Structure formats: structure tokens, C-alpha cells
């Protein structure tokens, strides 16, 4: 490395100090994660009532208590009331005026000056009447809703198709009744793009008056209010202390804008679609729910009963048994049942200016370290990075500042670990590995510190750049090992020389194979659909054995890395080191899933490293045994 001893010490001190600040943040994060092991397992009220009907329950109150006792459920998902549901449950009757006029002519009803173009709705009781009346007035206006018979009948300017699926609000009497029975309630709202600011404000206020309702989920492909009203919804949710759920793998329009306006209100939710449920066994579904909570920090599970595929013991007994198994499994893993507030307290991630500067300098120092492999490092370069760290803190918003320097750290840390070992300890194998482990830990602590913020840990903000982070360190290590550092500065000359090189079939084939391998390596990352069936089977086996699945890239990467350093005197060891970089990249990538509990990322990475080193030892021993066998065979002949 072309760097003076003084500069080497300066960079090492900066990295160490940044690691210490990151260690403090990591300790605080672990403490908070231990206190937030609460998860809500809930079933939609409509589906639970249907399950009771299938099981022959005659009394909802008794059935509700039985379900709580048998399954351990404490939370229920309540949908906004709609006219279509009220009619289906016998709480409302609706006719168009033209229909009533025709019935009057044949004596089927009493004519009462009905207008043929209006819709008339009869409600079964006063509370239902008030819910429908206020809900329709909120969305259609006072002029469109007329009390035909106060407390009994409404006249609506519209037809059945216009109003049947409008969200009328959550029934306050229903919520109060559920609360008395010990249920926590999550509200699910229908999207409506026609609501103005006043209507949205009134709807949020109505939610805030419901006892125990703190979490809202949006039904359908769009959030409440739609484009142009996101800021209003965010302000109202924040005003009333309401949180909103994001259903994993189910994108909704304008949701990112809502997160940007109110990131502290986000709670991650997981559910399994009907199409997926039909293809899953109960064991697979159970494992998926548990993995979502354990691996990705999910706080709410929306469980849908299985209707089309008969469960073991029948639909009722099978579904109740499945929910009971899910709650018991989560309890056995240390999770408590309850209605969640917010995943991470807003006071987290509050750093002093000097701590943020140290974290930025630590991550910038990794970049300087790598730059020193290409060109001699000067104090001017160090000063430039220091100015950039301090200046960007003044120029950019805090979360943008975190992303800039965190992104730099993620890009350069894996390559810095590999090249740092080669530079400091080229001949001492075990000392080199210990030094590399130290570099990796300090760099990870600095990255975890810079992203120590509720908006990152809750998943409100996602780290973009993972694909690039998979490739950049790999290319950088390859360039330093094969192109020679001092020649990298003459990039234009190298490109021109490569372009003038005669094309050979072998080279083209080799480049094609490499391109396919790199493409598969990048595209398959985090995408189970692109993983081969045999590997999926191996993944599930590893998960059942260890509880958390180690990453394939870490196992193979650290196997190559160990072998590359073990045989570093061999000319082909450089290729092993390049492939081994994948293991370090994967470890960094694992910790960049900030919504994943920290112990899961650490445990997964340690498993991958241990299994990779174990395979490497077998490879080294196998090669040695093979060499001895060949020597013995040669001498015997």
C-alpha cells in the first residue's frame, strides 16, 4: 500500500473511533429489540365469524371467548362497514325508488312519494342508522343524504352500485363490544379517492374515538385519500397517534409518500394471499409466518382461515389448531401477544454532531484506504474527505446524510477487508484472518451506527444500492489483484489496449460464462423464485436444523476465501480470493437488512462463516490426501 505510517495510523484511529460509536448504537439497538418482542396475530372478524358458523357456533359471544381460550388470539381485524355487508347480515334493506313505486302499484308496499332515481335504505337499529348516516354524509355530502324517516330510513341521491362498497367507518358499538370481550382491534379502511380534506379529517377523528384502536391498514391497491391527499392523511394519523400498517409484498399506490410524511407511524404487517394458501401445507404456512416475525421484524400477522383445502380434523378444528400452533410457536421463541404500538421509539438514533462526524469519517476512511491501493495517499486527500463529511452534514437532511456515508461504507468495506489482509499480513495466515475479522467488525459497527434510526430499523426507509454493492467490491478486488494497482490510474490506456486485443473464441466463451455467472449471482439475490429446486430443499433443511437459514453466498464465499489465503502462494489463488469476496459482501448485505433483528443477522452470518470454513478445511484436507495418494501411487509403480 502506498501510504505513510502516519496516515495508516490516522485512518486506523478514525475507523476504531467510528466502530466504538457504532458499538454504542448497536448496544442500544439490542436493548430496544429485546423490549419490543411483541407481535399481534389477528384474524379478520368476518372470516372468524364465518369460521364460527362452519363450526356450528350459535352464540357469537360464547364462540368469541372459546376462540380466545383455544388459540391464544388477542387481536382481531375489523373492516369498515359497507352497505353491502349490512344488507347481507340483515341489518339494512335497500331499494331504488322505481322498485318501490312498482311494488306500490301491485300492493306490495305503501306508496310514500318515492322518487324513482333515489336509493332508499331501511336500517335495523339506531346505532346502525347513525353509522350509515354519518358515513354517507362524510363522503357524499349533506345534500345527497336525506332523513326520510329519522332513525329508520335514509333517502340517498345515487344508486346501489355507487354506494354499496363505500367505507362508512368502523362501527363504534362493535369495537366497544369487542373491547369488553378482551379483543384488541386493528382497523382496515376502504380506499376512496373522492374524499376531500374535511372528509379525511372526520374519518381519522372517528378512528381516534374508538377504544383501543391504534393501528390502521388500508384495503386494496391504494391508501386512503389517494394522490394529493397523502399529506392530509399523514398529518391526521400523527395528530391522533395512529399508526399504519404496510402489508409485506403487497404494494399500494402512494404508500411511499405516506412513509415519507410520517415514517414513525409505520408498522410492518405480513399475510399470505389466497392463491398462496391454496398451494401451501399448514407446516409451510406456519414456518413462513414465524420466519416473517423472526427474520424480518414483522409486528403484525394477519392470518386467514383456509377454506378450500380441508384442514386436518375439518375446517373448524384444523384452522383453530393451526392458529393455536402459531401462537404457541411464537411464545416458545420469546414473543409476546398484544396490540403493537410502534416498533422503535422515536428518540432512537439521536446522535451528537461529533458522533455523526466520527461515523462519517470512519466510513470515509475505508474509501481512502482503498484509494491508497491506486495512488499515493496525501494529507490533501484526507482533508478533502473530512470537509466532505462535515459539509454534507450541513447540506443534506439527516437521513440523506446517513445514506450517503452508509452507502460508501457498504461499497468499500468488503474490498477493504480483503485487500487490507493482503497488505498487512501477506505471509501470516492466521494473523491475517484475525486482522480481517477485526476490520469487518469495525466496519459493520460503523455502518450499523450510521443507520441507527427508527426510519431505517422499522423499514420505513429501505437501503437502495444492494445490487451495486454486490458487484462493486468484487470488481475492485479483481482489478487490484489482476490489473495491478499502479496501472488502474491509466484507465483510458487499459481500455484502449483491451479494445485492440484480437478476439479469440476461448476468450469469448470464458467471458460469456463469467457474464452468465455474474448475472445469476446478482439477479438471484433475495429472490427465492430464481433459486433452483434442489437449493430450495437445502435451504429448508438448513433452516430446520439451525433455526435461521445461513446464506449460500456466505458458505461458498468463505470457503473460497479460506482456500485463497491458505494457498496464496499459488498463482491461481487470486481467483479464489475474488470469489471469496462474495462471502464478505454477503455478510455486509445481511446487516443492511436493517428491519431484521440484529441477533438474526449476526447468527446467520456466523453460521455461514463457520460452515464455509468447515467446507474449506475439508477441501484442504481432501486435496492433501489426494496429493499423498498420488505420491504413493507414483512411488509404488
Summarize the structure.
This protein is α/β, with parallel strands linked by helices and 637 residues long.
Structure description:
With 637 residues, the chain is of the alpha/beta class. It has 27 helices and twelve strands. The protein has helices spanning 5-35, 45-54, 60-71, 83-88, 97-105, 126-140, 160-163, 172-180, 197-208, 230-239, 255-261, 274-279, 282-296, 315-332, 353-371, 379-395, 398-424, 429-450, 454-457, 466-483, 485-488, 491-499, 505-523, 533-546, 552-566, 573-591, 598-636, and strands at residues 38-44, 75-79, 92-96, 119-123, 145-149, 153-156, 184-189, 215-218, 243-247, 266-271, 300-302, 336-337. The strands form two sheets. Strands 1-2-7-8-9-10-11 form a seven-stranded parallel beta barrel. It has a four-stranded antiparallel beta sheet with strand order 3-4-6-5. β5 and β6 (153-156) form a beta hairpin. α17 (398-424) packs antiparallel against α18 and α17 (398-424) runs antiparallel to α26 (573-591). It is elongated and about 110 Å long. The chain starts with a helix and ends with a helix. The model has no long low-confidence stretch (mean pLDDT 82).
Amino acid at each position: 500500500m502506498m501510504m505513510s505510517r502516519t496516515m495508516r495510523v490516522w485512518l486506523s484511529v478514525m475507523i476504531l473511533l467510528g466502530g466504538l460509536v457504532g458499538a454504542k448504537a448497536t448496544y442500544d439497538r439490542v436493548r430496544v429489540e429485546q423490549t419490543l418482542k411483541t407481535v399481534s396475530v389477528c384474524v379478520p372478524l368476518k372470516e372468524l365469524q364465518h369460521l364460527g358458523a362452519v363450526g356450528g357456533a350459535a352464540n357469537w359471544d360464547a364462540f368469541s371467548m372459546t376462540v380466545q381460550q383455544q388459540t391464544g388470539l388477542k387481536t382481531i381485524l375489523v373492516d369498515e362497514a359497507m352497505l353491502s355487508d349490512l344488507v347481507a347480515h340483515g341489518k339494512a334493506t335497500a331499494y331504488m325508488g322505481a322498485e318501490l313505486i312498482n311494488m306500490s302499484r301491485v300492493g306490495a308496499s305503501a306508496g310514500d312519494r318515492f322518487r324513482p332515481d333515489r336509493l332508499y335504505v331501511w336500517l335495523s337499529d339506531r346505532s346502525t342508522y347513525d353509522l350509515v348516516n354519518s358515513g354517507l354524509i362524510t363522503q357524499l355530502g349533506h345534500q345527497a343524504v336525506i332523513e326520510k324517516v329519522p332513525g329508520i330510513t335514509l333517502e340517498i341521491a345515487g344508486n346501489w352500485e355507487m354506494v354499496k362498497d363505500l367505507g362508512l367507518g368502523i362501527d363504534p358499538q362493535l369495537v366497544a363490544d369487542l373491547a369488553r370481550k378482551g379483543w384488541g382491534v386493528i382497523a382496515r379502511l376502504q380506499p376512496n379517492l373522492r374524499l376531500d380534506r374535511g372528509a379525511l379529517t372526520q374519518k381519522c377523528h372517528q378512528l381516534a374515538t374508538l377504544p383501543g384502536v391504534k393501528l390502521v391498514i388500508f384495503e386494496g391497491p391504494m391508501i386512503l385519500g389517494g394522490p394529493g391527499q397523502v399529506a392530509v392523511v399523514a398529518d391526521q394519523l400523527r395528530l391522533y397517534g395512529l399508526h399504519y400498517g404496510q402489508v409485506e409484498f403487497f404494494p399500494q399506490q402512494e404508500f411511499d409518500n405516506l412513509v415519507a410524511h410520517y415514517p414513525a407511524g409505520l408498522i410492518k404487517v405480513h399475510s399470505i394471499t389466497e392463491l398462496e394458501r391454496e398451494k401451501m401445507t399448514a407446516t409451510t404456512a406456519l414456518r413462513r409466518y414465524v420466519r416473517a416475525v423472526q427474520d424480518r421484524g414483522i409486528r403484525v400477522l394477519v392470518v386467514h382461515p383456509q377454506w378450500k383445502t380441508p384442514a386436518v380434523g375439518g375446517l373448524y378444528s384444523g384452522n383453530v389448531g393451526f392458529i393455536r400452533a402459531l401462537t404457541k410457536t411464537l411464545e416458545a421463541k420469546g414473543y409476546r401477544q398484544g396490540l403493537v404500538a410502534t416498533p422503535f421509539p422515536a428518540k432512537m438514533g439521536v446522535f451528537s454532531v461529533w458522533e455523526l462526524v466520527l461515523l462519517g469519517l470512519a466510513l470515509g476512511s475505508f474509501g481512502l484506504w482503498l484509494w491508497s491501493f491506486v495512488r499515493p495517499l496525501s494529507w490533501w486527500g484526507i482533508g478533502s474527505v473530512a470537509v466532505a463529511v462535515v459539509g454534507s452534514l450541513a447540506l443534506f437532511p439527516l437521513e440523506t446524510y446517513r445514506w450517503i456515508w452508509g452507502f460508501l461504507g457498504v461499497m468499500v468495506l468488503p474490498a477493504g477487508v480483503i485487500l487490507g489482509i493482503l497488505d498487512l499480513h501477506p505471509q501470516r495466515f492466521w494473523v491475517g484472518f484475525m486482522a480481517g475479522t477485526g476490520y469487518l467488525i469495525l466496519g459493520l459497527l460503523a455502518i450499523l451506527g450510521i443507520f441507527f434510526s427508527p426510519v431505517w430499523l422499522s423499514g420505513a426507509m429501505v437501503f437502495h444500492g444492494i445490487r451495486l454493492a454486490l458487484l462493486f467490491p468484487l470488481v475492485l478486488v479483481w482489478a487490484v489483484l489482476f490489473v495491478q494497482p499502479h496501472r488502474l490510474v491509466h484507465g483510458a490506456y487499459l481500455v484502449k489496449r483491451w479494445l485492440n486485443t484480437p478476439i479469440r473464441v476461448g476468450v469469448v466463451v470464458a467471458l460469456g460464462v463469467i457474464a452468465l455467472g455474474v448475472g445469476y449471482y446478482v439477479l438471484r439475490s433475495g429472490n427465492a423464485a430464481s433459486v433452483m429446486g434442489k437449493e430450495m430443499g437445502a435451504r429448508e433443511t438448513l433452516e430446520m436444523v439451525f433455526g435461521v437459514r445461513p446464506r449460500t453466498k456466505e458458505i461458498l464465499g468463505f470457503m473460497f476465501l479460506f482456500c485463497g489465503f491458505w494457498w496464496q502462494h499459488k498463482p491461481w489463488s487470486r481467483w479464489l480470493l475474488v470469489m471469496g469476496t462474495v462471502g464478505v459482501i454477503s455478510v455486509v448485505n445481511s446487516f443492511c437488512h436493517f428491519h431484521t433483528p440484529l441477533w438474526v443477522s449476526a447468527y446467520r452470518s456466523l453460521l455461514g462463516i463457520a460452515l464455509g470454513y468447515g467446507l474449506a478445511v475439508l477441501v484442504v484436507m481432501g486435496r492433501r490426501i489426494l496429493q499423498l495418494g498420488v505420491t504413493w501411487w507414483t512411488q509404488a509403480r
